[in-house]
Amino acid sequence: MRALLLTLFGITLASADPLTFDTTPLGEKDRPIILRTYVPDPGLDPAVFPNHGKASKSPKYSPNSGRDTKGEYGMLKVIPAAIAVNHGPALSYVWDTTECRLLYAWQGGFLDLYPYWGEKNRGGRRSFDYGARLVGNLFYLAKPIKRERPTFIGYDLSDKGVLTFRYKLGDKEYTEKIIPSDKQYSFISYLDEDKLEYKGDLISKHQGFDRNLKIKSATAKAGEQVFGAYGCIACHSTDGSNGHGPSLKGLAGSTRDIEGGEPVLADAAYLTESIKVPNAKTAKGFPPGYMPPYQLKDKEIESLVLYIQSLAK
Amino acid sequence: MKHSLLFALFAAPLVASPYKVEDIKFPAEVPPEVGAIDFAPDGTLFAVLRRGDVMRAKPATDPANWKWELFATGFHNGCGIDAVSRDKVRVTQMADFTEATDTDNDGTADQYRIFAAGWGLSGNYHETNTIAEDGKGGYYIAIGTASHNGPTAEHTLGEYSKFGRRGRNFASVKWRGCTLHCDSEGNLTPFCFGFRMHNGIHQDSSGNLWCGDNQGDWRATTPLYYLEKGNFYGHPSALVWDEKWPTDKDPLRTYREDLDAYNKHRTWPSVQIPHKEMNRSAGEPYEIPGDFPHFPGQMLLPDNNSKRITRIMLEKVNGKFQGACTHFLNGNGLRSGNHRIRFSPDHQQIYVGQTVRGWGKEAEGLQRITPTGEEPFDITAFNITPRGFRLTFNRELATALTEKDLKFKSFTYQSKWTYGSPQENKADNEIKSLKPLDTKTIEVTLAGFKPGRIYQLDLGKLKSKDGMEIQNRLFYYTANQLP
């Protein structure tokens, strides 16, 4: 998708696609996207950060009086200098340039940058809460290790943009590469030439930033809003074109082939189940475990179903 | 010159505006949040966008038909860029200074290397950095502060200082609020201290280093600073990263309580630029090349928070820079968000990079400014004398000026912990004498003329002998020194 030749309003773009206003960008399995941003700390052991500085709470400051006022500034659970990489729903990971190691990995989505990037027309960062949110199922968290202080050198990209990180421990240079495997809760890493397949378990589920849409009654229009707010289009097209997940065009009311099961009718019950428990049935031709279970409110789910049904024709 | 003359003959509009301002379009849906721009030696323009992409294009005449290519990606809020060649850029992002190279000549960078690192990043949203080339293969790097409108992370990049964390804009991690020197090998050393947010730094053709800053705490109004090694430029938080400052002393508290000591320690701005009237938030200062048709050798200072670019006329008095400011461009199709400036390789056009995202109403993009004709009628030299000023116009005046045509006032500013400071000690400075030196130059002597004040000149609706109306009627001269 990112390699398409775009012609937009007469402007030709001859290379891979740049980032857009979409706050939930998604790469491809063999063509990742790379984001440097304030990635969340999803619950790492503080001992994973031996080479970081340690901040503390600070007295609140009043710019009006020039003096301290009641209360304290808290701290944000973000990692300042990490690199976030996404291979589509197959794998996302965060590699830190200070500790020079993989910090965590997840599947089923990437990051929701809405708190940092805001809406297209307003910008609007969330003042004390701008860390990107994870989307997907977290299955790997780094554990503390004892080693000397590393030095980050940089990274190289393959023809398709797959990263090989380079860093030093003392005078010795090391490389590390992390790529998706075909299995759930799994990735493959290469530390220099040593290949390791990591297989983990679900640690936590994440669905991005809660947009708090305040829907009064379920309608197809509200469903379109939910669809936009949660970046569903990153995987599900509305025009029949291929994506990471099934297109929504013509989906409602059709008969769906299911991986390892009987075909089912895509009625309201099936659509509702597919949103609430996305891995209960996997549509044929799509990998299992990709879609994270979004904890949507009932009215949001009902609205989404109505929206999908409005795309039946 | 030839180019602009032809333009004037064949394309000049009936109502002459001195500049054509065009909107250079990025591909639709690409957020045009321009962190920084630079021309490569082959004339390719590179723009680093704040979400992470570096785009490049050969400038086209049609502003809506540029063939943009994605050259590199994955930068965090890159706000400084050096286009080393068509295949290599260096970008200051939040955490480091990274070089991205296209080694296999396929049009996109495939090798990313740390060029320099060592400053801290607290996790605050405000900590952007920018560069100026030092002319020897190295750079000066302006390391921005954090804002109290956002927190820090628990685990910071670099050492954390609780005193540096104090105040409105703060410098809680290493070298925030400082200017660093980076040699051609990427080795960093602190150069000078005490900046609030010097979002733009520039070395002029004579090797002088300049930056602006943003009116706010410890910034009475928008300043233009001349940078020298070891100096303190007035925003206290960064002093925690100056080895000369005692480690057990809270700089913010110290200077909040003792403005006299503060005034002795700090280096004052070369030019103080009234915030409402001229420039609310300085971007990158930039010297106008000698072969640009208008105001060559003077300095531009984009306003990040208004649709304006300031023009600055500098001079050296008693060995120190000071000078006057007025508008270069005020409105006329210019967007707000102005913070980066580059001249086209032929020096006949100005490119302005714009972004404010997350700070007020959005103003994002890239614009191109082209002179439509001859230099507009204006004051082109504003010089101080022991008893007043010598003003030089670029055209002959229609009639000899009288006292009624000029009004001088003056005032002072005291920077302190407040967000900006009012104009104080206001006085009218009566014209004691007005003497034409020739048909373009006059000398005025003023009553109560003293150093340490900012002088405001309001001009009447002057006309040139050939019928042009004066472009600017408001000027401010910062008289730190009298000759």
Q: Please, how many helices of chain B?
A: 3
Radius of gyration from the alpha-carbon trace of chain B, in angstroms: 23 Å
Query: Structural class of the secondary elements of chain A?
Result: mainly beta
CATH class category label of the largest domain in chain B: Mainly Beta
The largest β sheet of chain A comes out as: 7 strands, antiparallel
Beta-strand content estimate of chain A: 25-35%
By CATH's scheme, which homologous superfamily of the largest domain in chain B applies?
TolB, C-terminal domain
Can you walk through the features of this model?
The complex is a heterodimer of chains A (313) and B (483). Chain A is mainly β and 313 residues long. Chain A folds into two domains: 6-48 and 76-206, no CATH class; 213-310, Cytochrome Bc1 Complex, Chain D, domain 2 (Orthogonal Bundle), CATH 1.10.760.10. Helix content of chain A is 12%, strand content 33%. Chain A has helices spanning 114-117, 220-229, 268-276, 298-310, and strands spanning 6-8, 11-13, 33-36, 39-40, 53-54, 58-62, 67-73, 75-76, 78-79, 82-86, 92-96, 101-107, 111-112, 133-141, 150-157, 163-169, 172-180, 186-191, 194-199, 204-207, 255-256, 264-265. In chain A, strands 3, 10, 11, 12, 13, 14 and 20 form a seven-stranded antiparallel sheet that branches. Chain A has a five-stranded antiparallel sheet with strand order 15-16-17-18-19, with no helix packed on it. The longest helix of chain A has 13 residues, at 298-310. Chain A starts with 5 loop residues before the first strand and ends with a helix. The relative contact order of chain A is 0.13. Chain B is mainly β and 483 residues long. Chain B is globular, with a radius of gyration of 23 Å. The model of chain B is unreliable at 1-15 (pLDDT under 50). In chain B, the strands form eight sheets. An eight-stranded antiparallel sheet of chain B has the order 22-23-24-25-36-35-31-32, with no helix packed on it. In chain B, 5% of the residues lie in helices and 39% in strands. Chain B is built from three helices and 36 strands. Chain B folds into two domains: 2-371, Neuraminidase, CATH 2.120.10; 379-479, Sandwich (Immunoglobulin-like), CATH 2.60.40.1220. At the A-B interface, strand 2, strand 3, strand 5, strand 8 and strand 9 of A face strand 5, strand 9, strand 13 and strand 14 of B. Strand 15 (150-157) of chain A pairs antiparallel with strand 9 (111-116) of chain B, so a sheet runs across the interface.
